[in-house]
């Protein structure tokens, strides 16, 4: 089989890529091993993620499917002694902040909708698992080998391969990219499920995201998924979980009452309606994640602590950027350069660096972060947490202030993000 673009993974990164490519007149094949619907976490959208959904023409579908409306997020401090709220707001063409809303999504339902929409718009779905990378003699990628659902093998030849495999990091695991290394948060574990009977606020903020904090790198999320069900999860140091010597279920149930008084108030009785699952060592970064004939998107090359729900947004925004980069590549752009996607790498890394710095500032300097949010840089914090972190000519004042607190220098000449706080620094 031949196609212009082969997409490994049928999640939001893959399906958004297919739809944005189609808008540019580019053919794609989505390779997906799982049968949808299937379970995933990462259920909260930033404001700018909602903007991408609207740009794809899906707002009416989102409203018809009755995904909960998110108008902001509230962070509760240790002991529920203080809290602060950040609204979802958009920027008008003349730069004014205006009220907006985004969505919470049950990923099984949302991801299936995106896949169906991508196929309806012209993408082809191949049900199977990508097992090998096809390369040319010069090290460039020219396609993938797929084990089909019936057990047979098929080569899909493509001018570009987009790795949208998420935490499976398909191309990195096959040695196509640069090295993969663990980040600041690699000694943590996330344990999560869903509950019914939780107490929500009354009024328009009923379905907002709640973040409940106990201590550094020890927190919980509370994300409404429908009228009855709330996604809940606890993120803790792996050593803390190990020393408790509890099952995942018992650990989660206890933590939902011990972590923060506000969380206990909202979940007076823990009624689980979903299997208790976990993810460990989830923070990592891949160097040189794009090159001749390939681009890794979203979690396929980088992921940090999910405290502010950037995951869906980063994946879908990178898909949009990648579609334009692929178009330029297919038209011959930068083919004579050592890395034809160097500009794309810099754009993406600069944005993700800003995300990482916001997260790190929250954990390392929570009091200063609260002051920035309430007093000094309120509008800029709203921008950051909405996801307006890409293509900045100059870092905003709040980001400069955060980097000063972190004693972090992001200046670079080669456009490659440096591993900060990692357990090791790989060779260039």
Would you give the CATH topology of the largest domain? Answer: FAD/NAD(P)-binding domain
Query: Approximately what portion of the residues adopt beta-strand conformation?
Result: 25-35%
What structural category characterises the helix and strand content?
A: alpha+beta
Helical amount among residues, as a percent range? Answer: 25-40%
Large-scale geometry: globular
Taken together, the total number of domains comes to: 3
Number of extended strands:
22
Q: How is the biggest beta sheet arranged?
A: 8 strands, mixed
Q: How many H/I helical runs? A: 13
Low-confidence stretches: 421-428
* CATH superfamily membership of the largest domain: FAD/NAD(P)-binding domain
Secondary-structure arrangement, i.e. CATH architecture of the largest domain: 3-Layer(bba) Sandwich
- Rg value: 21 Å
The end-to-end distance, rounded to whole angstroms, is 36 Å
Average the pLDDT over all residues and give the rounded result: 93
CATH class of the largest domain: Alpha Beta
């Amino acid at each position: 089989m031949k196609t212009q673009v082969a997409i490994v993974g049928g999640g939001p990164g893959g399906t958004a890529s297919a739809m944005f490519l189609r808008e540019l007149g580019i053919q794609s094949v989505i390779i997906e091993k799982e049968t949808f619907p299937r379970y995933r976490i990462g259920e909260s959208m930033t404001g700018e993620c909602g903007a991408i959904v609207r740009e794809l023409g899906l707002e009416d579908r989102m409203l018809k499917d009755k995904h909960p409306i998110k108008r902001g997020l509230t962070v509760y401090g240790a002991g529920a002694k203080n809290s602060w709220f950040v609204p979802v707001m958009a920027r008008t063409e003349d730069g004014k902040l205006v009220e907006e809303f985004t969505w919470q999504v049950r990923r099984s339902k949302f991801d299936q909708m995106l896949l169906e929409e991508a196929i309806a718009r012209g993408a082809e779905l191949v049900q199977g698992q990508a097992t090998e990378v096809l390369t040319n003699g010069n090290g460039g990628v020219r396609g993938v080998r797929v084990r089909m659902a019936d057990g047979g093998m098929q080569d899909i030849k493509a001018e570009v391969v987009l790795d949208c495999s998420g935490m499976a990091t398909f191309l990195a695991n096959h040695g196509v990219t640069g090295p993969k290394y663990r980040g600041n948060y690699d000694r943590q574990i996330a344990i999560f499920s869903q509950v019914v009977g939780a107490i929500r606020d009354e009024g328009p903020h009923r379905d907002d995201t709640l973040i409940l904090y106990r201590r550094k790198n020890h927190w919980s999320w509370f994300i409404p998924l429908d009228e009855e069900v709330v996604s809940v999860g606890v993120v803790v140091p792996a050593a803390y979980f190990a020393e408790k010597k509890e099952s995942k279920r018992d650990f989660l149930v206890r933590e939902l009452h011990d972590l923060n008084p506000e969380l206990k108030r909202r979940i007076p009785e823990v009624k689980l309606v979903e299997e208790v699952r976990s993810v460990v060592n989830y923070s990592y970064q891949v160097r040189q994640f794009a090159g001749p004939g390939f681009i890794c998107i979203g979690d396929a090359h980088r992921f940090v602590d999910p405290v502010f729900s950037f995951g869906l947004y980063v994946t879908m925004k990178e898909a949009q950027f990648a579609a334009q980069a692929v178009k330029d590549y297919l038209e011959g752009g930068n083919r004579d350069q050592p890395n034809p996607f160097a500009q794309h790498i810099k754009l993406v890394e600069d944005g993700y660096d800003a995300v990482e710095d916001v997260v790190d500032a929250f954990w390392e300097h929570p009091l200063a972060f609260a002051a920035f949010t309430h007093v000094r840089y309120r509008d800029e914090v709203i921008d950051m947490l909405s996801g307006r972190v890409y293509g900045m000519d100059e870092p905003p004042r709040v980001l400069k202030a955060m980097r000063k607190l972190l004693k972090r220098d992001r200046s670079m000449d080669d456009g490659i993000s440096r591993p900060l706080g990692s357990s090791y620094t790989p060779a260039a």
